[in-house]
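Quick one: examine this chain and its C-alpha cells and tell me how the chain folds. Here goes:
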Amino acid sequence: MAAGPIALKMGYDTKVKGSGGFSDIDLILFRYADVYLSLAEALSQKAGSTASDLKEAVDLINVVRARAKLGNLTYAEHNTPDKVLNALLLERWHEFWCENGQFRQT
C-alpha cells in the first residue's frame, strides 16, 4: 500500500457485494484550509478573545492566503473580532467557492 494521502471520492471496501466494491458510506473530507479557517473563526469569536487570539487568527488566515500566493492580511487592519470575522468569511468564500454547497454561504 502506498504511503501518504490517498485521493478518493468513494470508499472502496472488498467486503461489499455488487457495485464494483464501492461502498455507499458517505465520507466526510475536510480540506486543510477549512481546518485553519475554522480554528481562526473559533479564536476570533470566543468569549473574551484577546489580542493574541486575534493575531493568531489573522496568522491562520494568512497561511491559507499564502498557499494561494496572495498577500498577507495585517493585524493592524484586522484588530477586532468583527474585522477578523469579515476577513475570514471573505477568505472562506474565495477558498471554497462552489465546493460542497459552500456557494450558499454569505
Notes: The CA atoms of residues 9 and 92 lie 22 Å apart. Residues 30-96 form one domain. The chain has three helices and no strands.
